[in-house]
């Protein structure tokens, strides 16, 4: 492990930034659930003072979500920036300038100790020397992990959408025989609140976004296999690098906790993937 006076490496900063973004995203998701419950409770209320209190709570929750989402965006932006720097530094041996390292260090702020603890000189499996082949192998490994994490996130998001839809339908079907004619308006408001939450970006929207991102990264993986078969020509590889960066940075963050849950399984799959001949992949 690095000494306490040594500056953290790029991989450590990258991992610390993504870990923090994941933790912040988990808080955002919890607040979004709380906001949805608040909206449903407001739809069921007839007492003006209670509705007013719930409206104030909704405003506070919305403000907190906006603030946290801004922090997620800044932290992830740092992680993505360092990830790009890492590919060049670890793949081609082109180290960042002292100004770039200082800028990244200042942006990392209080993550320095966490970055030091998360640093790993063996983060990438490739043992190839600096050059295009090493960069290509690093990119292939990164794309493999990203694709599996996005697929897992997509599956989890679709399951959550399905469960929420079933709950919503069950609530409506249970409530219909019990309501009086004058309560139809309240039931309609409840249905609207539930439907709005289900189709929000963090439920159905997230499932669709994960699917699109996983397909984009999968296409990058296929292109990398063809590029590797041609001994990693520089012009072609650099175009793939740009497309991979665009696909990853436009994708939502993988679901919180998914990396820790699946990392051993993905490592085993990666070992099997590398053992296969190129024609079988």
Describe what you observe in this structure.
- The two termini are 36 Å apart.
- Helix content is 78%, strand content 0%.
- Residues 1-5 have low confidence and may be disordered.
- The chain is globular and about 70 Å long.
- The chain is mostly helical.
- Helix 1 packs antiparallel against helix 2 (48-92), helix 5 runs antiparallel to helix 7 (204-229) and helix 5 packs across helix 9.
- The chain is built from 9 helices and no strands.
- It folds into 2 domains: 1-123; 130-281.
- It has helices at residues 10-44, 48-92, 98-108, 112-118, 132-175, 184-198, 204-229, 234-250, 258-275.
Keyword list:
single chain, 281 residues, mainly alpha, 2 domains, 9 helices, 78% helix, disordered N terminus
Distance between the termini: 36 Å
Q: What's the Cα radius of gyration?
A: 23 Å
Beta-strand share of residues: under 5%
SS element count, helices: 9
Overall structural class, as computed from helix and strand content, comes to: mainly alpha
Question: Quick gist of this model?
Answer:
This protein is mainly alpha-helical.
Topology:
Blueprint: H1 10-44, H2 48-92, H3 98-108, H4 112-118, H5 132-175, H6 184-198, H7 204-229, H8 234-250, H9 258-275
Helix pairs in contact: 1-2, 1-4, 1-6, 2-5, 5-6, 5-7, 5-8, 5-9, 7-8
């Amino acid at each position: 492990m690095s000494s306490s006076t040594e500056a953290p490496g790029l991989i450590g900063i990258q991992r610390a930034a993504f870990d923090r973004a994941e933790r912040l995203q988990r808080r955002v998701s919890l607040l979004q659930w709380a906001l949805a419950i608040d909206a449903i409770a407001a739809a069921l209320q007839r007492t003006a003072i209670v509705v007013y209190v719930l409206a104030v709570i909704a405003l506070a929750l919305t403000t907190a979500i906006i603030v946290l989402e801004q922090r997620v965006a800044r932290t992830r932006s740092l992680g993505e920036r360092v990830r790009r720097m890492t590919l060049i530094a670890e793949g081609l041996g082109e180290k960042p300038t002292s100004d770039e390292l200082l800028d990244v260090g200042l942006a990392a702020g209080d993550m320095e100790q966490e970055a030091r603890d998360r640093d790993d000189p063996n983060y990438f499996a490739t043992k190839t020397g600096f050059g295009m082949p090493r960069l290509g192998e690093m990119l292939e490994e990164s794309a493999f992990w990203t694709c599996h994490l996005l697929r897992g996130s997509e599956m989890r998001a679709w399951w959550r959408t399905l469960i929420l839809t079933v709950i919503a339908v069950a609530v409506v079907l249970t409530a219909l025989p019990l309501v009086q004619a004058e309560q139809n308006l309240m039931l309609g408001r409840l249905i609207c609140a539930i439907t709005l939450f289900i189709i929000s970006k963090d439920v159905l929207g997230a499932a669709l976004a994960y699917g699109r991102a996983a397909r984009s990264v999968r296409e990058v993986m296929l292109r990398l296999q063809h590029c590797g078969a041609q001994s990693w020509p520089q012009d072609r590889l650099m175009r793939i690098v740009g497309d991979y960066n665009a696909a990853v940075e436009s994708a939502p963050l993988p679901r919180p906790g998914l990396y820790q849950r699946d990392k051993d399984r993905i490592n085993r799959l990666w070992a099997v993937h590398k053992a296969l001949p190129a024609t079988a992949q």
